[in-house]
Amino acid sequence: MNRLLNLFTQSLCIAGLTCGVAEHTTFAQENSSLPTLRQQLLSADSESQIEAAAEIGSLGPYAFPAIADLVAQLKSENPAVQYECISAIGEIGPLAHEVTGSIEAFLSNESPTFQAAALEALQRIGVASPAGQETIRQLCGNPDAALRVPAVRCLLSITGDTDPVVAAAIPQVAAALGDERDAVRNEAALCLIEMGPLAIPIVGGELASPDTEARIKACEILGRAGKSSSSIVPELFKRLKDDDELVVRAAASALGEIQSSPESVLPALEQLLTGKSTAVKVAAIRAIGEFGAEASSSATKIQSFLNDTDISVRSAAVHTIGRLGVSDPKVISALVSMLKEEDGSVVINAANAISLIGEPAVGPLMKELGAHGREALIVEILGEIGPPASESADELVRLLSTTDDVELQREIFVALSSMGHVSDEVLASLRGILQDTKAGDRRAGAVYVLANLGDQQVVPILKELVSKDTSPRVVRASAWALVKLSPHDSAVAELALPHLQKALSAEDALARREAASAIASIGPNAKGATQKLVELASSDPDSMVRATSLRAIAEIRSETQAVLPVALASLKDPDSSVRNAARFVIGRIGPDAHAATPALRQAVRTDLEFDQIIAAWALVRVSPDAESMKVAAPFMLLGLKHQNPLVREEAATILGLIRPSTPEIQTALEAASADESQKVRSAADNSLKAIRSGK
Asked: How many CB atoms lie within 10 A of CB 27?
């Protein structure tokens, strides 16, 4: 559940667009120090220069105005200053592509430390001159793995996995998984992960390595590759009986991530449940959960651990029960009872499990309302269940009228907004709250719900509230709701935009996210919000706010110079939704964002399927050459089958650009011409016309 942890860590604000100021470091605050750091870099004191270079590097792509200053200091007589400047240029990443010649000079340095720093910098930037590439190829044969492995990883970033030197070096990189140096082992693992399917057979061979660390790393790499590692499942089976418990756990986790051959993998994982090791049990239980409904036959065995005395085992079992889709009333009752436990991990996993079970859990949850002690948590779970929980809407409205608990009120509003359809009585009650001047800021929550339910009857009321109401929260909520209900009305956009821009600074993450979403629907007329959206995308503590801000940046078509740094930085965000939003921005920018090409190609090789589809789409947009088209084609065909019509539409458009076209592409587009979405049908028809005309 996206917000569940908040219930245990902070006091939440009332539903709707609240108006406090967020307490977090912003993009503007981070970058206000750059001019001072640049001056410090040019000072006479080497210690100050070293410190400044390190600080500049920590800003990543946002430090690109300092590139020339860093290059100038590469001529310093102090090796430590040179080293920090090389590293800082690398941290800036693709935006430093025009100064790679200055970095390449250090590839032939007599110091391996400088050579390694130059390799890492070029790997982060993703480009090198032909001469630089040749030097890197030579380093790929260095006898020291501390140079050999970074060289292979650097070449992979620059040329992709088609370079024969990269392919030939895989066995040596895999062998480095057993290196006695932690840094070398980790670098080798990262390199092999980035190679994608190309490395899997050789990594599979390392499962038989006499070195324990090498076997563990091999399991982790194969798990990261997901279904691409299916051919190695028999070898992973053997590691379930490894002498080292850490290897057994790693193998079990990998088998769960690969999700292949359930008919043989699941019984093998179940056997691990009978052992004495708690850690192995936890790994096996969670691995079984990765198979979802395919592992329903394992449900009985997993249920036996719901009352285990060990909290970690119980928590894992609860998590997995939800993934298996168990709807047994006794199990649901047990999960609901666990919501009363004191251990946070058990409560969170129980809540997640109940929300995944969905509709069968609605009745038992409703029985606990008013008699539980954690009503806000129960209401949130009902909201996560969404439309199948709409039968609870009348009870939630009644609860809303009897409670003064602001946190509970908020959760009720959020839950109601997720239900899609409610009774006329519920709508009438919410409209009553909206028009009740004594209801205070609860009116903002009512606005939020009515807009999400698509209630067009409240539009005239909202216009009046935006113009005349004295509550900032109600005004901002009403402005957001007007855009939500009338996204293409320019007069509404003009009226609402100033209030939405203020809401981008709200204390509540939900308010910031909804404001960014509304601004996205306004489109290019909201360019004045670009700077604040860049700040949120750069540094907001909430991942959904970062992702939504990036999507808004893409929709309002902000200037490339203003948004490219944050998009490139966001490609490394730990949250996949943020990374995909960044790819969307980069794809919208087009060829001017060509510096992102190496990162996009890496994502196409190594990410999960949906992420690969988005990365492939962006790759064609920024680098529409024959190689990119060839790489993207299989993923665009997958995109045509995606449940999201926007993904299908974009995939259909890209397939029309691919030359030469193939019978498979044309057949897929012909099928898409009958898609339920008019926009998808139109995109498919246009692509077919382009292919048939040869244009």
From this structure: 22
Structure tokens at 146: 């501390």
Residue pair 273/252 in contact by the 8 Å Cβ criterion: no
What whole-number distance in Å separates Cα of residue 336 and Cα of residue 325? 15
- The CA-based angle 146-152-157, given to 5 degrees, is 125
Q: Residue 326: pLDDT band by 50, 70, 90 thresholds?
A: confident
Percent of the chain past pLDDT 70, that is, above it, reads: 95
Asked if the bond preceding 79 is cis, omega within 30° of 0, the reply is no
Q: Determine the Cα angle at 592 with ends 587 and 596, to 5°.
A: 60
**Comparing C-alpha atoms, which of 258, 262, 305 is closest to residue 280?**
305
| pLDDT tens profile 497-519 | 999 999 999 888 988 999 999 99
Contacts of 398 (CB under 8 A, 6+ apart): none
Q: What is the pLDDT of residue 23?
A: 35
Query: What pLDDT sits at residue 252?
Result: 97
Tokens at 368, concatenated: 């606990």
Instruction: Name the 3-class secondary structure at 31.
Output: helix
CA-to-CA separations, 278 to 216, 247, 345, 543, 685, in angstroms, rounded:
18, 14, 16, 33, 57
Give the model confidence (pLDDT) of 133-190 as tens digits.
Answer: 999 999 999 999 999 999 999 999 999 888 999 999 999 999 999 999 999 999 999 9
CA dist 657 and 652 (Å) reads 9
CB contact set of 555 (below 8 Å; sequence gap of 6+): 520, 521, 523
Reported pTM: 0.79
pLDDT of residue 21: 31
**And the tokens for 202?**
């050789």
User: Are 95 and 61 contacting, i.e. CB atoms less than 8 angstroms apart?
Assistant: yes
Q: Which structure tokens are listed for 677?
A: 């979405």
Joined together, the tokens standing for residue 569 give 């930085």
Distance CA 649, CA 635 (A): 13
CA distance 335 to 362: 12
- What would the two tokens of residue 151 be? 């060289």
In one-letter notation, the amino acid at residue 220 is: E
How far apart are alpha carbons 175 and 12 in whole angstroms?
51
